[in-house]
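Ticket #4471: structure export looks truncated?
Reporter: QA, pipeline team
Priority: medium

Steps to reproduce: submit the single chain below to the structure queue and open the exported record.
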Amino acid sequence: MAGAKPVLVALICVVVAGCAATTMPSPDPAFPSPGIPAAASSTPASTASLTPSPTLAATAAPTPAPTLPAGRLPRTAVVEQDGVRVKIELERNPIPAGEWTRLTTVVRNTGDNVVTWFHDGCAITVGTWGEMASAWRPGIAQTDVPATFKDRALDLAYRSTPLPGPIIDFVPERWAGTGTHGCADLGMSDLILPGKAIRQRYVWEGHAGHRWGPPPSGPVTLTGTFAHYWRGREEPEGDIRDRTIEVALDAWITGGADDSWLSPPEVVDAALADPAFVAYLETQDLGNGREEILWYRPELGAWEVGVLVWYEFPEPRLHLVLVDPHTGAIRDTVDRPWNEDVDGFP
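Actual output as written to the record:
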């Protein structure tokens, strides 16, 4: 037990007192560019029927293609408040769909005393994301078990608001390509000394949030938020959640999905048009030890739709159908073990 004491002391130092923050270097690996398949016919043939789904009637008029503004687009935005300068910088603008794009954030203390920053286990200084103005086409109304599956797959089961438009989300570089992630539910503090900065790097993986395939081309305003900070070492009165600095940057997405691509709700509808898939869902206790899967896999040129059963013996298994992103045809059925290295977390 003697070896445990220094660890406990170190933990108390981080959580209670914090430590001086310095520049945080990150590795610079070669970034993959998975790209977007031009059409369904470019993918390998499957054993399943390629008959288009009869449920996929058009739900909206064709959207006019947006026009990229002339001239050079900004890559950097800066806001200074309370002696704290927050900067976000894209490696390029416009940003291409289907490819990884880096974003660098810098939080610098320009004042003459320390800044305390309070955060959780992820320690994300400037969370950056954007929502496109265009809404996803909603598909058709489902009932019974298909309705439950669709609501859960689209994360509608717990929403009081409509499904948002395509989300552009930047994740810490170390987690890029690994699916979703969670943060330790701990309160920790860091001190940013006068003149010092915290520098971090993030990645947009080229798809809409939740691995929902390429977003449409067009404008998106990125918003970066630095939160839960105060000047000095002593926590001030009031709610620290109100202490935020926001910085906005107008970006443009190119090479995105056009109207020939099904929306995520339409992809779910296409899967639910398969009687065998619905029959399988009716045997499952959705939401109980099961994750509803809705992933676009660029390397397959297809969507994976189905269920991850965590407690199957001897290992978690995925029960999926592969859906063509343009026609809604069921290309194949898949029953395989979940592979964390390949699939990431749902």
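Status: closed, not a bug. The export was complete when the record was re-opened. Leaving a note from the reviewer for reference: The chain is about 15% helix and 30% strand.
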